[in-house]
TrEMBL record:
It comes from the Eukaryota. One of its GO terms (cellular component) is proteasome core complex. This is Uncharacterized protein. It comes from Limosa lapponica baueri. Pfam families: Proteasome (PF00227). GO terms for biological process: proteolysis involved in protein catabolic process.
Amino acid sequence: MASLLKLSNFQKKEPASALTLIPISCSAQRLKFRLNLYELKEGRQIKPQTFMSMVSNLLYERRFGPYYTEPVIAGLDPVTHEPFICSLDLIGCPMVTDDFVVSGTCSEQMYGMCESLWEPDMEPDHLFETISQAMLNAVDRDAISGMGVVVHIM
């Protein structure tokens, strides 16, 4: 039996607000609904930490029939503009760090690249180059992860 590689060339993220992105494979319509409900009720933009809890709850609700996704949530606090980054597994368990998170089929390769290239307090251009190189090198070593990389600058 021949091996099968599914290629999907479309944007896999959608802006939730000016400061966060929604992974599309994680039922973007449900997240958009909950996000709009939150912003109507609270009358303010959602913080990335609160959005992480919202996504985590959505994933945990489907733990017996999960969405097969590992979302990465990155954003800036609307008040303090402090950066926030975390990843969640397919049942919603968060991993919050101060430096970097990885997700997907090439995560083992990306850990090595990110640990060797990442430094604290990088300039935006240097950070963009580091992210691009880490992702491209990891994708080159993993045939399942597909081709190409899109880096979102916020």
